[in-house]
Amino acid sequence: MSWLQFSIQTDKLHVEGIEQALEAAGALSVTATDAADQALLEPGPGETPLWDQVILTGLFSADNDQTALLKQISTATGIDTGRIRIEEIQDQEWTRTWMDHFEPMSFGQRLWVCPHAYTPPDQNAVNLRLDPGLAFGTGTHPTTSLCLTWLDSQDLQGSEVLDYGCGSGILAIAALLLGARTAWAVDNDEQALIASRDNASNNQVSKQLKTVFPDALPAIQADVCVANILAGPLCALAERLAQSVRTGGEIVLSGILQEQADEVRACYQPWFAMDNSINKEGWVLLHGTRRAAPVA
Known about the structure:
Elements: E1 2-11, H1 15-24, E2 29-34, E3 53-61, H2 66-77, E4 84-90, H3 91-101, E5 105-107, E6 111-114, E7 126-129, H4 142-152, E8 160-164, H5 170-177, E9 182-186, H6 190-202, E10 209-212, E11 222-228, H7 231-236, H8 238-243, E12 245-257, H9 261-268, E13 272-274, E14 278-280, E15 283-290
Helix pairs in contact: 4-5
């Protein structure tokens, strides 16, 4: 079976309108990709970040009248037909394109993240099965990689873990597969919670994963809190996250650029004894241990 792929380059201010036009025209899926090789931060809870320049691609059945569909999309978006790229692709080409971008990845000594289309390279490893979806977090971004590698290095057996700003739930699920007893996946975005539950089911850890919006998070005392969001939200959340970690418990913070590390560390030092940072490709992971009492 073949498909028609309509691609439009635009700026992030016009993404929503064009996406709606493609969907109204009958697109089976609409995807957004970077048009200018721009680095994109991991999102904070409830955020949907976009590149400044975006390529929106709508996938349609090849049964459509290509000329009529082009005219419909051009009229609905106000974009000249010459700026709309059309390709005909086959099923096997679509699958191969997807596979080229998402392959099994290893983190630390034990953990692999492996799409369902692949057989895990190491059957004896801790294999987290995850496909790319609507929610962010597949392990490809340096901040996610830093967190996964840190989790792999820990003895999480029987622990309670808080994943704040969970995205796809990848960190919470990894913690469970590595031995955690319970994991809380917290996010403002309902799609993130849905994705986290689906991914937990695919990894047979649904019973141990609890998904909640931030305002519904109960008063827990987690052994480990992982927050892979952004520097600004991390600073704003410092006291709240501290209250959710037991004395002697650990906090892991990422989504932080190297030049932001000192500011974030200072926000958490009243409640945590902060270690040296771990750096990767200009991004930073900060780790701290919960103090018995805050210090000035």
